[in-house]
Amino acid sequence: MKYLKPWWSEGGGLLHLTILLSLAGLHLDLDLDLYLVLPPPTLFRDELLLGDCQTNPAYAPSLFPAAGGWGRTDHLHPKGREPDPAAEPEGQLFREVRTLGVPFIPRTRVDAWLVHSVAAGDADGAHGLLGAAAASASSAGGVGTSADSGSQAAPGGGEDPRAAPSSPLEEEEAPTEPTAQVPDARGRASEDNEVLRAMGHSSQQEENEQRVSSAQKEKSLHQKNEDENKIADKPEWEAEKTTESREERHLNGTDTSFSLEDLLQLLSSQSENSLERYLYGTDTSFSLEDLLQLLSSQSKNLPERHLNGTDTSFSLEDLLQLLSSQSENSLEGISLGDSPLPGGINDVMNSSAHYHVNISQAISHDVNLHEAMLLCPNNTFRRDPVERTSQPREPFLPLNSHTINPEQTLPRANLTGFLPPVDHQLRNLTSQDLYDLNINMFDEINSVSLATESFDPLEVSHLFEQPDSDSGLSLNSSHNSISVIKSNSSVCEGAIGSSSDLESPSHCALEGAVGGYYPEPRKICQVDLRSDSGFHRDLAFQHVLHDHTYHLQPSAPESTSESFSWTGKSHKIRSRYLDDTDRHLSRDERRAEALHIPFSIDEIVHMPVDSFNSMLSRHYLTDLQVSLIRDIRRRGKNKVAAQNCRKRKLDIILNLEDDVCNLKAKKETLKSERAQCKRAINIMKQKLHDLYRDIFSRLRDDEGRPVNPNEYALQFSHDGSVWIIPKELVTSRHKKETQKGKRKSERRN
DNA sequence: GTTTAGTGTCATTAT
DNA sequence: AGATAATGACACTAA
């Protein structure tokens, strides 16, 4: 069974998802309280519309209620402003939120219990784990505790849930261990990832994680055997009683301990259906194997206590954090406690309110357990949904940044149905919003660097002014230009092809625009484009983040965000005109990035002319941008035309070659026929000569002497008589007849 | 180091 | 008149 019970409040909404599993005597009830982050309503209408992401940070506290483990909001309050609960009449946001999909923070409470002779898992352990998860989430400061308590926790909107736990469960059961160790686990995992990433050995990373996974599985098996022995010793009624009591305790939040191994055992015995399908409502079946795998992979992010078996407690907050962190939009950045939270979340809302962005998709992605299971071991983010769907995924991705690439991930997301009905038109903005989110995020982070680096837009203009060597390399660029270009290139590196590159906000922002496809371009981007500071700032991002991208996997496959025509072509094609540090972007793409062209190359090139012109007119674009877009379109079309031309030329050449072969064969045939005719003619001549000789040998003149064939010739008359006449007469007569024939033929002509 | 195939781009012309 | 297609010429890169 599945329950989707949305509940909204000002500053946030609580989505209660209950998953009840009952398979083969095993019951698992997952209560997922997903806290949907919302800004104050005023942001929808006023500040956000201005595109100023940082003018009103009042929404921040409500964004990250679970700051203890899921997010910090202090950096979102540069002015120390607190949200004003009375800023908007209660209920207004409710109506707006009903039409919006918003980021969420998983707020978990997992109920699980075992009944009867559970083949695998210690009920106590499982219970403890789930309870711990609930308590952990509670102690993390989340707004709302469960489906029941959540509706009581959020009212007021501006109330900071971190300061005031809103349910008895949180107050009473807040376990010290999960809440204390979960962030530590994340931190440790993050450190490990950093080390591995610094070593630059993804394979080693995989080995480590596989090692962890295998060790955990062994531990799970060992624990399973012990648990089976324990259960076997207990009478059935006692087991039921224990189960019920566990359930009660868990529902009450009094039991917070839980064993990961137990849960693994539970999950391992389940069917092979997909949790993802279950969550999305397309299939009521449930793939606990997926969750098992998820948990196994998550183990590397857990503290060592989970690995060495000294502590088997496990918080599903970790799990949901994992899920949240692995989703493909910047919502992860919001959800993660360690993530620098941008002041530009209002951009998200702004965009959501006025442009068509699919936020629900983003939310859906956040709860895509299956995907998270596959890709989340390192709390890394994937940035290219196309790559995700079309290319083999990296089982373990380095944790490079908390930023993500919303541009490429979200627009392609086609996951809906998880959330309650949301205004469809308002679901389509997440990517661009998150782009702005990233921009603002790193704007704050890199503000110092901006001051010191003092970027000059002219540096980027060099990118357009560099000698138009077809290679597109900045060979003649100045040092600064090279720096910028290289930075840009490095930022872009792996963006398209590598799912592990998550550090470049500018790139992330542009990646979707350049090479990605947007059904609807985002005007919000143009706000930044109009300002030099934004342009400046983005360059700074590229520069500041320069170092963060060199450890990216160089061999990352090209993304399909490169829906450009040469996506599937050879490496030679792709690598052409590219810098050594930027093997994935063409010159036009880099230029488009530099100017933040909000359209993909594919769009620009292949869009019908009417749509293209309307697109240019509908969006505020600078002259430089328009010029570049038109150049890109011209070059793109010319490139296709050149390809077609060469193909045609090649076809013509091939056809000509075929014609030559055919003609040669025909010539040989004619030669042979000619030879045969010559041979036949010679034979006929020889026979005629022999006949002539034979006739003259038998002829005699009046005196009985043989007739000389050299002096006389045979002449046939029309009446059939044969005359022997001198050759001279034959020659003269032949000439006359020949002349007559010519005259006749001339007359006919 | 040279050659060659493949490619992108520009300029020009044709449609 | 503008957009697009076609094509020759050139430059560049990788093999």
From TrEMBL:
Gene3D superfamilies cross-referenced by the UniProt entry: Transcription factor, Skn-1-like, DNA-binding domain
Keywords: Activator, DNA-binding, Nucleus, Transcription, Transcription regulation
Comp. bias regions, Low complexity: 139-151
Residue numbers spanned by region Disordered: 139-254, 385-407
Listed GO CC annotations: nucleus
Compositionally biased intervals (Basic and acidic residues): 185-195, 216-252
Cross-referenced PROSITE patterns: BZIP, BZIP_BASIC
Signal sequence annotation: none
Protein family: Belongs to the bZIP family. CNC subfamily.
Protein name: Nuclear factor erythroid 2-related factor 3
Gene source species: Phyllostomus discolor
